[in-house]
Amino acid sequence: MKKIAVDGEKMALVLWVLFLLAIVILNGMVGDWGRLAGGPDNLVRFFFQSLWPPDMSVLEPQTYPVCTAQPIFDFTCSTAWKGVIETLKIAFVATVFGMVVTLPLSVMASRNLSPRWISYPTRFLISACRSLPALIWAIFFVILVGLGPLAGVLAMTIYTVGYLGKLQYESIEGLTKTPLDAANAIGLSRWEVAVNVVIPEAANDLISHSIFMFEYNFRSGTVIGIVGAGGIGYYIDLYLRFLQYDKVFAYLIIIYIVVLIIDFISIYARSFFTEEEYLATPNWKDVFIPSWTRN
Questions:
Q1: Which of 68, 114, 165, 182 could tie 119 with a disulfide, CB 3.0–4.6 Å?
Q2: Which alpha helices (DSSP H) does the chain contain, by range?
Q3: CB-CB neighbours of 73 under 10 Å
């Protein structure tokens, strides 16, 4: 298939046309833009009356069961800590399980490695896993196995297979033909090509996608708890029901901080799998304290 080269001017023109089309479609859906007039005032009023200041008592230890940790570590007995740790566990286990299942599926779904009668049915399976959001999968598994983190792990694993599978088989299909042609020329089988050529060549992208998937699963894991699939979402839903928005806001701040920490760690981890000299492996001090802040 002949590839079409697109220069910068054509790309800019296409983006402008799409942007104008989006504006026209949005205008047709909204109809009455006057509804936005009181939005900022309502938001400010809600923020200062219901959200601020955040109730950080969610970091205080629970009265039951009795906290046995040292006083300096008594925050580990709080609902916020337990919810975040359980969400991290769900995200980690689901990501690892999803990676194990996804890698062979991605090889099977790649059109440059597998015949159509294998690649297309595999793509349909991956698309089926991705067709429903993680929240819907969580509801399904809560019904199937009951409340708790097991339902969350199963739901996030299925969604990881769908999401990560698409990213990985597209990365595999994006490989240059030279190493594949060389492997075929020496008579390697399809799986030997996958193990000895494709996976090493695409390793950087595969690992980067998996790290990104862990970040995504943690963010999604804060939501699936709302339907009883474990994690911090359970506590968020609980306080939402009692209209205690200041405590909900405190949980959101904690989630944001954890996401930032995960992002910084992922930057450090990704640096081990890049070959570009300008992306040299940083040290921990550079990750958490940028150099421009120390000048």
A1: 114
A2: 8-30, 39-46, 79-109, 116-131, 134-145, 149-173, 177-185, 190-193, 199-201, 203-224, 233-241, 245-270, 284-288
A3: 11
What's the distance, Cα to Cα, between the start and end of the chain in Å? 53
Please report, as a single letter, which amino acid is at residue 81.
W
Name the nearest CA neighbour of 106 among 180, 177, 198: 198
Q: Is 208:146 a contact under the CB 8 Å cutoff?
A: no
Spatial distance between the Cα atoms of 231 and 148, rounded to a whole number of angstroms:
8
Count of positions (residues) in the chain: 295
- Residues 6 or more apart whose Cβ sits within 8 Å of residue 201: 175, 179
Sequence-ordered list of residues with C-beta below 8 angstroms from that of 100, at least 6 positions apart, any chain = none
pTM strictly above 0.70:
yes
What pLDDT, on a 0 to 100 scale, did the predictor assign at position 1? Answer: 45
Please say if the pLDDT value at position 288 is more than 60. Answer: no
The span from the CA of 232 to the CA of 60, in Å, is 15
Cα→Cα distances 105→120, 135, 159, Å: 11, 23, 14
230: left (phi over 0), alpha (psi -120 to 50) or beta: left
User: What ranges do the domains of the chain cover?
Assistant: 75-240
Range with lowest mean pLDDT among 31-45, 118-132, 217-231, 241-255? 31-45
In the DSSP assignment, the letter for residue 148 is: S
Q: How far apart are CA 57 and CA 203, in angstroms?
A: 44
| Domain 75-240, CATH class in plain words | mainly alpha
